[in-house]
Specification:
The complex is a heterodimer of chains A (254) and B (229). By secondary structure, chain A is mainly alpha-helical. Chain A has two domains: 16-137 and 227-253, no CATH class; 145-212. Chain A is 68% helix and 3% strand. Chain A has ten helices and two strands, in the order αααααββααααα. Chain A has helices spanning 16-19, 22-37, 44-60, 65-68, 76-88, 103-129, 132-141, 146-175, 186-212, 230-253, and strands at residues 93-96, 99-102. The longest helix of chain A is centred in the middle third of the chain and has 30 residues, at 146-175. The radius of gyration of chain A is 23 Å and the shape is flat. Chain A starts with 15 loop residues before the first helix and ends with a helix. Chain B has 229 residues and is mainly α. Chain B has one domain (10-213): Arp2/3 complex 21 kDa subunit ARPC3 (Orthogonal Bundle). A two-stranded antiparallel ribbon of chain B has the order 1-2. In chain B, a hairpin with a 2-residue loop joins strand 1 and strand 2 (65-67). In chain B, helix 3 (72-79) packs across helix 4, helix 3 (72-79) crosses helix 5 (107-132) and helix 5 runs antiparallel to helix 6 (139-166). Classes of the chains: A mainly alpha (254), B mainly alpha (229). Chains A and B meet through helix 2, helix 5, helix 6, helix 8 and helix 9 of A and helix 1, helix 2, strand 1, strand 2 and helix 4 of B.
Chain lengths: 254, 229
C-alpha cells in the first residue's frame, strides 16, 4: 500500500542527462524498459548487467543518493511478492539449504526483482532530470491528444496548490483536537475529501473563467518547441539499444 | 498499488497498452461530446489533481496500519466515466514518470486496471443500482458505494487474468484468484465506505456537481411573499 507522494522528484542540475530534451529522454526511457522486460527470465547475468547500466545512468545525473534511495521503497510490496513466489509456484523443486522451493518460481522471482528494480532506477533517472513542465511539453511534442496534455499541464501546475490545501485542512483538524486513530474517524476524513473535491472543482471553474477572460481558445500555444539533433537522439536511445541487443543475444543463447 | 515493470511479459504489456489506448481514445470522443469540451479542460485538470490528492489521505484501519482511496469509481460518479478515465490516465502517467511509481512499461496495464476497469465497472454498477433505488438524492451515495465495492475486486480479477496470460511464474490459478479476490473484497469494503461518506458530504453541499445525480435536483420554485396589509 503506497502512502501517496510528497512532491515530485526533479532536482536542478547540469549533467548531460539534464540537458537532453524531455521527449528524447521519454522515448529512450520507454524503449529501454520495454527492452529490459523482453529479456528472458533465465538470463540473470544479462539482467544484472542492465541493472548496473541503469544505476550508471542514475549516478551520471550526480543527484545525491539520499534523495533517490527512499524512492526505491515503492518496490516493497513486489519484493515481498518475489520472496513468496518460489514457495507458491509449481514446477520442479530444488533444495537451497534447508528449504525446498520451485525452480521456475525462483528463476522468476530473481528476474522480477532485477527487472522491477531496473525499471524503478531508470524511471528515477528520468524523473530527477526532467521538470514536470518539460514532461508536459514532451507529451505535446509527441502528439499526445490535446485534452490529455491539458489535463497533465493543469495537474503539474496545481498539484502543489491542492496539496497545500490538503495540508491546511489537516492542520485545521489537528488544531481542533482531531486525531485519526481508527475507523471511527473515517466520516471526518471522508467529509474532508468531499470538501477537497468541491474546492478543487470550484478552483477549476475560477481558473477556467480567468483563462476565458484572457482569450483562451482551447489550445495551449507552443512558445519554444523542443528539438533534438541526431547526436542527442543517439545518446538518449543508447541504453535502449544496448538493452535490445542484450535481449536478442540472450534469446539466441537460450 | 501499481504494477511494476517485469511483472507481466513484454507481449502482455504491449497488448494492455494497446487496449488501454483504445479505451482512452474512445473516452476522449465521449468526454468531448457528453461531459466536457476542450474549453473546460481546467475542470478536468483540477479533478485529476483531486484524485491525486485524495490518494494522499490516509484512512487508519487499526493496529498502526492505514489505507488510501483508489478513487477511480468515486471520480466516475462525480464527473462521469469518460472524464474519469482521462483523469486517471493522466494521474497514473504522472505517477509513473515523475514519481517512479508503477512501471513505465506497465503503464498500459495500470491504466487498464484502474482507469478503465475500475472506472467503468464502478460507474456501470452505480447506474444499475440507481435505476433500482427510489429516485431520491439519498440514493446517489448508496449507488456510488456499491460501484466502488464491486470495482476493486473486478480490477483484481482482471489483473489475475493478465497474470495467468503473461505472468512471470506458473502459480496455481485457483488459489491465486481466491487470494486476490478475497483480499480485494476487503479493500472494496473500505473503498465503498469512504466513497459513501465522501459522496454524501458532496451531495449535501453541492449536488449540482455530482454527475450521477443529474436530473435529480429538485426543481427551483419561485416564491413571492404574501403582501402584508
Amino acid at each position: 500500500m503506497g502512502s501517496g507522494h510528497g512532491s515530485h522528484l526533479h532536482v536542478e542540475g547540469a549533467s548531460r542527462l539534464h540537458q537532453v530534451p524531455a521527449h528524447a529522454k521519454l522515448v529512450g526511457l520507454v524503449a529501454f524498459v520495454l527492452a529490459v522486460v523482453s529479456v528472458p527470465n533465465g538470463a540473470h547475468a544479462v539482467l544484472g548487467a542492465l541493472l548496473l547500466l541503469a544505476v550508471g545512468v542514475l549516478v551520471s545525473t550526480r543527484v545525491a543518493p539520499r534523495h533517490v534511495l527512499p524512492r526505491l521503497a515503492v518496490e516493497t510490496p513486489f519484493a515481498v511478492f518475489a520472496l513468496v513466489l518460489p514457495f507458491v509456484a509449481v514446477g520442479p523443486r530444488v533444495d537451497i539449504g534447508p528449504l525446498t522451493v520451485s525452480q521456475t518460481g525462483l528463476t522468476a522471482a530473481l528476474a522480477l526483482l532485477l527487472k522491477g528494480t531496473t525499471g524503478v532506477v531508470a524511471a528515477i533517472a528520468f524523473a530527477v532530470t526532467t521538470r514536470p513542465r518539460d514532461l508536459v511539453r514532451a507529451l505535446q511534442h509527441l502528439k499526445v491528444p490535446d485534452p490529455l496534455v491539458l489535463i497533465a499541464s493543469f495537474m503539474v501546475r496545481y498539484v502543489d496548490v491542492v496539496g497545500d490545501q490538503l495540508r491546511r485542512m489537516r492542520v485545521a483538524r489537528l488544531s481542533r483536537g482531531f486525531s485519526a486513530r481508527s475507523v471511527r474517524s473515517w466520516p471526518v476524513l471522508a467529509a474532508g475529501t468531499g470538501a477537497l473535491f468541491i474546492r478543487s472543482y470550484e478552483r477549476g471553474e475560477r481558473v477556467h473563467l480567468a483563462m476565458v477572460s484572457r482569450g483562451w481558445s482551447g489550445r495551449m500555444p507552443v512558445t519554444d518547441p523542443l528539438a533534438a539533433g541526431p547526436g542527442t537522439w543517439a545518446l538518449a536511445l543508447l541504453p535502449a539499444l544496448v538493452a535490445a541487443a542484450s535481449s536478442v543475444g540472450a534469446r539466441m543463447a537460450a | 498499488m501499481h504494477v511494476p515493470d517485469g511483472f507481466l511479459d513484454a507481449p502482455t504489456s504491449v497488448a494492455t497498452m494497446v487496449a488501454a489506448g483504445g479505451v482512452v481514445a474512445a473516452s476522449l470522443v465521449r468526454a468531448s461530446r457528453h461531459e466536457l469540451d476542450e474549453r473546460t479542460a481546467p475542470l478536468a485538470g483540477l479533478v485529476a489533481v483531486f484524485v491525486f490528492a485524495a490518494q494522499m489521505v490516509n484512512f487508519p484501519v487499526g493496529a498502526g496500519t492505514s489505507g488510501h482511496l483508489i478513487g477511480a469509481s468515486l471520480a466516475a460518479v462525480l464527473v462521469g466515466p469518460a472524464t474519469a478515465t482521462l483523469c486517471l490516465t493522466v494521474v497514473l502517467s504522472v505517477q509513473a514518470f515523475l514519481f517512479a511509481d508503477g512501471g513505465v512499461t506497465a503503464l498500459g496495464t495500470n491504466v487498464l486496471l484502474m482507469g478503465v476497469i475500475a472506472v467503468w465497472v464502478g460507474y456501470g454498477v452505480a447506474r444499475a443500482v440507481l435505476a433500482v433505488l427510489p429516485r431520491r438524492m439519498s440514493s446517489v451515495p448508496l449507488a456510488a458505494a456499491a460501484g466502488s465495492f464491486v470495482s476493486v475486486p473486478a480490477a483484481a480479477l482482471v489483473f489475475t487474468g493478465l497474470f495467468a496470460a503473461g505472468g512471470v511464474a506458473p502459480i496455481p490459478l485457483g488459489p491465486l484468484v481466491a487470494a486476490m479476490v478475497g483480499w480485494h473484497l476487503l479493500i472494496g469494503v473500505g473503498e465503498a465506505l469512504i466513497t459513501f461518506l465522501a459522496v454524501s458530504s458532496i451531495v449535501a453541499a453541492r449536488p449540482d456537481l455530482v454527475h450521477a445525480a443529474r436530473g435529480r435536483m429538485p426543481a427551483l420554485q419561485l416564491r413571492t411573499p404574501e403582501p402584508v396589509a
